[in-house]
Design a protein that fits this description.
heterodimer; A: about 325 residues; Metallo-beta-lactamase, Chain A; Rossmann fold; about 20% helix; B: about 280 residues; OB fold (Dihydrolipoamide Acetyltransferase, E2P); nine-stranded antiparallel beta sheet
C-alpha cells in the first residue's frame, strides 16, 4: 500500500495515522497553512508550522490543541519522518515531506516558487511522489515580476490621491493583504486596514513579520475620520466581503481595484465591478508549476485543487511522467 | 493611469491571416500542444486573448518600422518565414498590443485612412511610413464585421428610409443568439433615389418591405437571415449598450446575400483596448 492515499477526508498517511489538510474531524491533522480551505475547525490535534499557530488560533479558537514545528525540523510518527519546508505561499505555509523505508512523498499544499520578500521562499524538495496543487495550471497564467505590479498599484493610488479620492484594494486577510502592505509607497498617503486584516497583521507582527505602518479600522472608518485623519488620499485594504457591508459606506466615492491571479483574464471586460485589476497571485503560475515538478525529480505526480486534468495530461503527454488527478471532494476556489 | 499602446494607425496587413492559422503558428513556435491552447481558449473566453496570454511577458523590442518592413517583405516569404516573423513580433509586444496586432492580421481591426478622424480626436496625428514610434492612447478603433439584420425602424413620411439594427453572435456555436450592436440608415431621397451608397439599396428596401415581422413600439422585427458587411468607426467601450461597446459611424459595405458567417461579439471586443485602462470610476 502506498505511503499516502487519498480518502474522502483528504490525504492520509496510514502508517503515521496523519491527515494532511483534512476536510472533516480527524484525530491528527497536519495543516499546510492557515487559509480556511486548508485549516478547518474541529480537529482533535493540529500540527503546523510555528508561524501558522497564531492565525490558526485566531481563526479556530484559542483552545485548540496545536503542536508546531520549524522548517527543516523533523518529527517521527510510528517510523514516518515528517518534515516541513517553505512553500512561499503565505506566512507559515509549508510543504510536507513524508519519508518511510526509503519512499518519499511531498505534498506541496499551496505554493509559489518565486519569492515575494514576505514569506520564506519556496525550496525544491526531491521526492518519488509529488502531490501538487494546480489552481492556475493553464499557460495563460504567467505572472510578471511583482515590482512591476507594485509600480502599477502605487501609480494607481497616487493618481486617485491626487484627485482627492480614496482607493480600495481587495485582498484576502492572510497573505495577500500583508504582501500588498509591504510594498505600498507610504509617501502617497496612509494605509488603512479592515478589521479582519488588522487581526491577522497583529498576529503576524508578533511572529516577527514586518510590513510597514498601517491604521487599524476595526472600529469602523467613520471613527478614523472623526479622529481627524483624512481618508481622501488613503488606501484601504479590505477583504472582498467588506464591500457588501455598511463598513465601506463612510468612504464615499472611492476607486476600487482587485489584486488576484484571476485578473489576468479580461473575460470580455467583466471584472465583477472593479475599476482596475492587478494581476498578482500567491499561487504558482504555469511555468512555476512545471519548474516545481521538474525540480522534485518525482516520477509520480498527483495533481489536485484546480486545473488538475489539464496539468496531469500535460505531464503525461509532454513530459512523459506518471501523472494522475486526485480530486478534492469539496472543491472550493482557493483563498489567495 | 493610461497605458501607452503600440501605434497601428495606417498599417494594413498584406494578407488576411485567420485566427486558426495564428493558433497553428504559435503552437508550433512555442511547442505547445493544440489541446492545451484549446483549454486556454475555453477559460480565457476567446482564442485571441488566449494566444496573447500564452506568450507570457514581452521579450525583446519591435518598432513600427519593423512591422512596416515585415509587411513589405511578406509577399516574398515562405510560410515558415512568415510564422517566424509573426512569432517574433508578437513575443515582443505587450499583451494588449498582441491582441490588436492579431486582429489587424486577420482583417478585423481596420487602421486605414478612415482612421484619420479618430487619430485627430485622440490627439495623435495619423502617420504612415515615417518609421517613428508614436506613443498614443487609443480609446476607439475601426472594425470590419459580418452582422445579421435584426430590426428596422421606419423613418420619415415622405421618404422611404429605415434605421437598421444589426446583431452579432453571442455564442461560439451556430444557432447562437444575437445581440444588436450597430445601427445604420438606408433608404431613398424624395425622388426615390438610393442615397446611402449601397449598390443594391433599392432591392434591400424591397426585401425589408416584404419581410417585416412583429411590431415592438416604433421598431419592426424582420426575418433574421440576411448578413451584411459593415465598416464601423469610432468603436469604443460603453456600459450603456447591451453589447458593451458602441460605434460612432456605421456604413453598410455590402449585402452579402448570405445567411451564415455572422461575426461574434468577442471579435469586436478583441479589437478594443482592455476596459480597465479607460474606466475611471465605478
Amino acid at each position: 500500500m502506498a505511503l499516502v492515499t487519498y480518502t474522502e477526508l483528504g490525504f492520509y498517511c496510514a502508517q503515521a495515522d496523519l491527515y494532511i489538510d483534512p476536510l472533516r474531524r480527524v484525530a491528527k491533522a497536519l495543516v499546510t497553512h492557515a487559509h480556511s480551505d486548508h485549516a478547518r475547525p474541529g480537529m482533535q490535534h493540529y500540527l503546523c508550522h510555528s508561524d501558522s499557530v497564531g492565525i490558526l488560533k485566531l481563526r479556530l479558537g484559542q483552545r485548540i490543541s496545536v503542536q508546531s514545528m520549524g522548517y527543516g525540523e523533523s518529527i517521527w510518527m510510528n517510523g514516518v519522518e515528517v518534515t516541513l519546508f517553505p512553500a512561499g505561499h503565505v506566512p507559515g505555509s509549508a510543504q510536507v515531506r513524508l519519508s518511510y523505508r526509503g519512499e518519499v512523498w511531498v505534498i506541496t499544499g499551496d505554493y509559489k516558487t518565486v519569492g515575494d520578500g514576505l514569506s520564506p521562499a519556496w525550496v525544491s524538495v526531491r521526492c518519488h511522489h509529488l502531490v501538487t496543487e494546480s489552481t492556475f495550471a493553464l499557460p495563460i497564467f504567467q505572472w510578471r515580476d511583482q515590482r512591476l505590479v507594485f509600480d502599477e498599484i502605487n501609480a494607481w493610488w497616487r493618481g486617485n490621491a491626487a484627485a482627492g479620492r480614496p482607493s480600495v484594494l481587495l485582498g484576502y486577510s492572510l497573505g495577500k493583504a500583508q504582501r500588498i502592505l509591504k510594498y505600498l509607497d507610504r509617501s502617497v498617503g496612509e494605509v488603512v486596514c479592515h478589521g479582519a486584516i488588522s487581526a491577522s497583521n497583529l498576529v503576524l507582527e508578533s511572529a516577527g513579520f514586518d510590513f510597514g505602518p498601517w491604521v487599524d479600522a476595526s472600529e469602523g472608518l467613520s471613527g478614523i475620520r472623526a479622529a481627524g485623519r483624512v481618508l481622501d488620499g488613503s488606501l484601504v485594504v479590505c477583504p472582498p466581503n467588506a464591500l457588501r457591508s455598511a463598513w465601506i459606506t463612510p468612504l464615499g466615492n472611492y476607486a476600487l481595484a482587485n489584486c488576484s491571479g484571476w485578473m489576468a483574464v479580461s473575460k470580455s471586460g467583466d471584472w465583477g465591478g472593479v475599476d482596475k485589476g492587478f494581476v498578482m497571485s500567491d499561487h504558482a503560475d504555469w511555468p512555476q508549476l512545471l519548474e516545481a515538478v521538474r525540480a522534485s525529480g518525482a516520477e509520480h505526480v498527483h495533481v489536485t485543487h484546480g486545473f488538475s486534468e489539464t496539468l496531469s495530461r500535460y505531464l503525461r503527454e509532454t513530459m512523459g511522467l506518471d501523472a494522475d488527478v486526485v480530486e478534492q471532494a469539496m472543491w472550493e476556489r482557493t483563498e489567495e | 493611469m493610461m497605458r501607452t499602446h503600440f501605434n497601428f494607425i495606417g498599417l494594413e496587413a498584406p494578407q488576411k491571416v485567420s485566427m486558426g492559422k495564428l493558433k497553428l503558428w504559435l503552437s508550433e513556435s512555442l511547442g505547445m500542444p493544440l489541446w492545451l491552447i484549446a483549454e486556454s481558449q475555453r477559460f480565457a473566453g476567446s482564442l485571441n486573448e488566449a494566444l496573447a496570454l500564452v506568450l507570457g511577458a514581452p521579450e525583446g523590442e519591435v518598432s513600427r518600422l519593423d512591422i512596416e518592413q515585415g509587411f513589405a517583405q511578406w509577399g516574398g516569404w515562405t510560410d515558415g518565414e512568415r510564422r517566424a516573423w509573426v512569432f517574433r513580433v508578437l513575443v515582443s509586444m505587450e499583451v494588449e498590443d498582441r491582441r490588436r496586432f492579431m486582429a489587424l492580421l486577420n482583417g478585423r481591426l481596420v487602421t486605414g485612412s478612415a482612421l484619420t478622424g479618430m487619430a485627430g480626436r485622440d490627439g495623435a496625428a495619423a502617420s504612415t511610413g515615417t518609421g517613428t514610434e508614436m506613443a498614443e492612447n487609443i480609446a476607439s478603433v475601426s472594425v470590419k464585421v459580418r452582422a445579421v439584420l435584426l430590426y428596422v425602424r421606419p423613418m420619415g413620411r415622405s421618404v422611404l428610409q429605415y434605421e437598421l439594427t444589426f446583431g452579432l453572435r453571442t455564442g461560439e456555436e451556430s444557432g447562437a443568439s444575437y445581440v444588436g450592436c450597430f445601427k445604420a440608415v438606408v433608404g431613398t431621397d424624395e425622388a426615390g433615389v438610393a442615397i446611402h451608397g449601397l449598390s443594391d439599396e433599392l432591392s434591400l428596401l424591397e426585401w425589408i418591405g416584404s419581410n417585416l415581422g412583429e411590431r415592438i413600439g416604433p421598431i419592426r422585427g424582420v426575418k433574421v437571415s440576411e448578413v451584411f458587411e459593415l465598416h464601423c468607426d469610432g468603436v469604443q467601450w460603453s456600459k450603456r449598450h447591451k453589447a458593451g461597446f458602441k460605434a460612432e459611424r456605421v456604413s453598410v459595405v455590402s449585402w452579402l446575400r448570405d445567411t451564415v458567417g455572422v461575426s461574434g461579439l468577442w471579435e469586436v471586443r478583441d479589437c478594443l483596448p482592455r476596459p480597465q485602462d479607460f474606466v475611471q470610476s465605478g
